Amino acid sequence: MTLAELFRHPDRFIGCIAIGRVARRRPGERLRVGRHEALLDEADCAAFDGLAETLLYRPGDTFSIVAQGFDYPSLARCPALADDGRCAIHLKGKPLTCEVVPLDPLVPDHLQHLVLAERGDSAVYAGSACIQEGTRDDLALLVDEGRIADLHAQHALARRRRALEEERSIWTQAVFDALRAELFDSPAALARIPPGGFLTISLVPALLSVAAASARCRALCIDYIDSQLALIERCIAQALTRRRLDDRPVTQQLRGFANAYRHAKARLFDAGTLEKDHGEPAARPDIEAYLSSAVQ
Ligand code: SF4
Predict the structure, then answer these.
(1) Which domain of life, per UniProt (predicted)?
(2) Tens of pLDDT along 62-91?
């Protein structure tokens, strides 16, 4: 998700930052999924690198930094999935990433068939038969001969990539810089992120970064924190009634998020008090417009 999408649904999704380790592709590398295979050449790797340069971070290895909804895996469902099986926010700010699924914005278009093959084989999609090879009269063709054949998917992919670029200018670059010393330059800390896996941390570094843009941004962040604290409390209360052992680590992490939010809220209040005496800092109108449009 984007940070703006989290702000649009502060009572539905628990926000966090997901920091992922992304494999760097090399010429001569063979990508094989089932009977599909690609031997990467210089052009393929240049295409991966082109996406990584604008969407990812490369302090050595390659990392993604994105906002994400966080929930109990034991629930095995998105918080926006209604009981009738439909998306409750389909017409009210459905995240762009949902329109992109099952494609992957970090993979060049001409290799998206491998993404589909891999997802079609994965446990999450097993039995759903929602990714199929060949053409069907009742369904649009998604990829064909190394191109995205479906126009809607093509546009969604392009918009998602643009959104990820915008996230970089609004907050992910700032978070990367803030975490550089303690995470990205520390081999011991980076060892916590497995290959192809994620580290999820509190959304607070992102909030502190955008809150510094203006007094209005700070107020929006405080409102967001209040909603999140209430949501986390509700989610933990429900988990306690479920009494599942595998929920415990998640509850612990949520309590950590709540603590981080409380500290951040106190810092934001202090910053507001200081500014009353010393005037407003230089505003970042682009960040203010970004957050304001999210809560309209
Ligand atoms: S489309 Fe599905 S995953 Fe996306 S918000 Fe709606 S219910 Fe959740």
Answers:
(1) Bacteria
(2) 999 999 999 999 999 999 999 999 999 999
Q: What angle do CA 182, 251, 19 make, to 5 degrees?
A: 35
Q: 69 φ, ψ to 5°?
A: -80, 140
User: Which numbered atom of ligand 1 lies nearest the CA of 81?
Assistant: 7
Q: Please give the mean pLDDT across all residues of the chain.
A: 92
pLDDT of residue 279 exceeding 60 = no
Q: Is the pTM higher than 0.85?
A: yes
Domain boundaries, the chain: 3-295
Measuring from atom 2 of ligand 1, which residue has the nearest CA?
Answer: 87
Distance, in Å, from the CA atom of 198 to the CA atom of 256, rounded to the nearest integer, reads: 17
| Ligand 1 center–CA 81 separation, angstroms | 6
Q: 221 CB contacts (<8 Å, ≥6 apart)?
A: 207, 210, 211, 264, 268, 291
Distance CA 16, CA 70 (A): 6
Q: Which residues contact 130 (CB under 8 A, 6 or more apart)?
A: 102
Ligand 1 neighbour 78 (Cβ under 6 A): yes
Angstrom distance (rounded) from CA 72 to CA 89: 20
Q: Is 227 helix (H, G, I), strand (E, B) or coil?
A: helix
Q: Of all residues in the chain, what percent are helix, strand and coil, respectively (each to 5)?
A: 55, 15, 35
Ligand 1 atom at shortest distance from the alpha carbon of 78: 8
As a whole number of angstroms, the distance between CA 172 and CA 163 comes to 12
Which helix (H) or strand (E) is 39 found in, with range? Answer: strand 36-39
Q: Which residue puts its alpha carbon closest to atom 4 of ligand 1?
A: 98
* Binding site membership of 120 for ligand 1 (Cβ less than 6 Å): no
User: Token pair 């369904």 is at which residue?
Assistant: 139
Centre of ligand 1 to C-alpha 154, Å, is 19
